[in-house]
Design goal:
The complex is a heterodimer of chains A (about 250) and B (about 270).
Chain A lengths: L1 H22 L11 H11 L3 H32 L1 H14 L8 H8 L3 H25 L3 H9 L4 H37 L6 H10 L3 H29 L12
Chain B lengths: L17 E14 L2 E14 L3 E5 L6 H9 L6 E6 L2 E2 L7 E4 L11 H11 L4 H14 L15 H14 L4 E5 L7 H18 L2 E6 L2 H7 L2 E4 L9 E4 L14 H20 L1
Parallel strand pairs in B: 3-8, 3-9, 6-7, 7-8
Antiparallel strand pairs in B: 1-2, 1-4, 4-5, 9-10
Classes of the chains: A mainly alpha (about 250), B alpha/beta (about 270).
Chain lengths: ~250, ~270
């Protein structure tokens, strides 16, 4: 019982403070809008919301999907083949410290302001995160499983597919969730790159009109999507890692 | 004093054919502290169908020798021949059972046992029959869809043993397989493995530091010493098969065991 009270206490306090400040109009709505302003903004945005949400959601998912495939795929290829490691490795090492947001102006100059460069931008960020962690996970693979599988007659390809990949998956969950969260941020940045539609673009429009409530509504929608996406990943994780040792996380 | 019986060619009832030959094998470990020689011109003949135990104190090189035969390590010099052919790397024909848990946690018992068969392209119908056979052999039929995390240490060892055996290796290399288990499970598995080996006619090279285990399970014992320069001492285990587990209390058994221990104690005082 105490645990439940502790969990809802902070948010309850914040809501009480927020309501008392805004309903009594003690604070200007341009800084902190109250529920009445938020509702008005929501009604105003109703027209553009469905399409904007769809655009932002699909770009994020596409970028995330491309990024995971590229990041994990390249890490595997570089682990599997020394030739590829030598060819691609130095480029990876060199480009890793580059902050991806600094590349936005370059992206715009090179690729323009279309949908594709934005999705690729998100993919690039996600690939960077996944690639490094996948490489580490593969390197830290316990050798006994490799010895056993080769000893049982598996060839290299089979070992990578049936031994390394399933083993490292639970070790990558944290990274996948982090990459998923990051992909939303990358998507917002991508929309700031000159998008003409989507939630991020609309946030800039709202900002221009000094409509704080509008911005907040759009942020809430991003948050809701990110939370739902994370929950879905969590459910998939539980399904796919039924074989791992369970730890009772509350007592540790 | 254990005599290196020059006439020790093979143990009781084993075949005359040499299936595994180790010739002048040398191996060292290299670290930043320099070279640590572990094997120096080590030679050994292993006969078909025999159960030979490699025994010795920690660091004598018995696991290293097994790893070399398995192909996980490459010797500095010397040769390993199986069926008169030079050994080159890892092969399912020299199946290994490890000391640590090596069954794959993400696969069920069934899938673990069938892993080698799938890897080698055995067709599904045969696979099914073989897996079923070995599941019954180790008495784990009831647990075939369980995951390793749901099994006890002893059960995991049985799965590992079944998995290696199902792949039909000519030679079984067992590297202190019961080292991590409790005394009761260990003895249970000693009996089981011996029983299964007797039915199967495989050749087993069994590494252990446990002299009692070696004497109970082995036809021959090869003693290795910490000093890599000292050649192996070979010893025929004089007990007939099948052996009852109670033989461990036998006076003769205990006497031989004491002799071994004294030999090692004497040697370590000298060294």
């Amino acid at each position: 019982m105490n645990s439940i009270i502790r969990k809802i206490l902070p948010i309850t306090v914040i809501i009480i403070i927020w309501l008392s400040l805004t309903l009594t109009e003690t604070i200007r709505p341009i800084f902190v809008p109250g529920p009445q302003h938020l509702w008005k903004a929501l009604v105003g945005l109703k027209g553009i919301l469905p399409r904007a949400t769809f655009i932002s959601l699909s770009m994020t998912l596409a970028g995330f999907g491309i990024g995971i495939s590229a990041g994990v795929g390249l890490a595997f290829i570089m682990a599997y083949s020394k030739v590829f490691l030598d060819l691609l490795g130095p480029a990876f090492e060199f480009s890793r410290p580059i902050p991806i947001f600094a590349l936005i102006p370059l992206f715009i100059l090179w690729f323009g302001i279309g949908r594709l460069p934005q999705v690729l931008f998100i993919g690039l960020g996600v690939a960077g995160i996944m690639g490094v962690n996948t490489q580490e996970a593969i390197k830290n693979m316990p050798s006994i499983y490799l010895k056993a599988s080769y000893n049982l007659g598996a060839n290299k390809k089979r070992v990578y597919r049936t031994i390394i990949l399933p083993y490292i998956f639970p070790h990558l969950i944290g990274t996948i969730r982090f990459a998923a969260a990051a992909s939303w941020g990358l998507e917002v940045a991508a929309e700031f790159m000159g998008s003409q539609a989507g939630l991020g673009f609309n946030m800039i429009v709202q900002q221009v009109y000094l409509n704080t409530s509008g911005i907040i509504i759009l942020v809430i929608i991003y948050c809701a999507m990110a939370i739902i996406f994370d929950m879905i990943i969590g459910k998939i994780e539980v399904r796919l890692t039924r074989w791992t040792e369970r730890h009772i996380s509350e007592s540790i | 004093m254990i005599e290196n019986d020059k006439n020790v060619k093979k143990g009781n009832n084993r075949s005359n054919r040499v299936i595994l030959t180790i010739i002048n094998l040398s191996f060292s470990y290299f670290s930043d502290k320099g070279e640590v020689p572990v094997l120096k011109n080590t030679s050994l003949d292993v006969f078909e169908n025999e159960f030979i135990c490699l025994v010795g104190p920690s660091g004598c090189g018995k696991s290293t020798l097994l790893n070399l035969v398995a192909g996980f390590l490459k010797p500095i010099s010397g040769e390993i021949l199986v069926n008169d052919e030079k050994v080159n790397g890892i092969s399912h024909n020299r199946g290994v059972v490890f000391q640590d848990q090596s069954i794959f946690p993400w696969l069920t018992v069934y899938k673990n046992i069938s892993y080698g068969l799938e890897s080698r392209g055995v067709d599904p119908k045969n696979r099914e029959d073989i897996v079923q056979k070995y599941l019954d052999l180790v008495q784990l039929e009831e647990f075939k869809y369980y995951y390793p995390r749901e099994l006890s240490g002893g059960m995991k060892k049985k799965v590992e043993f079944a998995r290696t055996l199902a792949n039909d290796p000519e030679i079984l290399l067992m590297d202190e397989p019961f080292g991590a288990l409790d005394a009761l499970t260990k003895e249970f598995l000693q009996i089981e493995v011996t029983r299964i080996w007797q039915k199967s006619k495989k050749t087993v090279v069994f590494v252990t530091h446990d002299l009692e285990e070696a004497l109970y399970m082995g036809d021959r014992i090869a003693i290795m010493y910490t000093d890599p320069g000292i050649p192996l001492t070979l010893f025929n285990v004089p007990f007939a098969r099948p052996r009852d587990i109670e033989i461990k209390s036998d006076t003769e058994f205990q006497k031989i065991r004491r002799n071994f221990i004294n030999e090692f104690r004497g040697l370590s005082e000298v060294l």
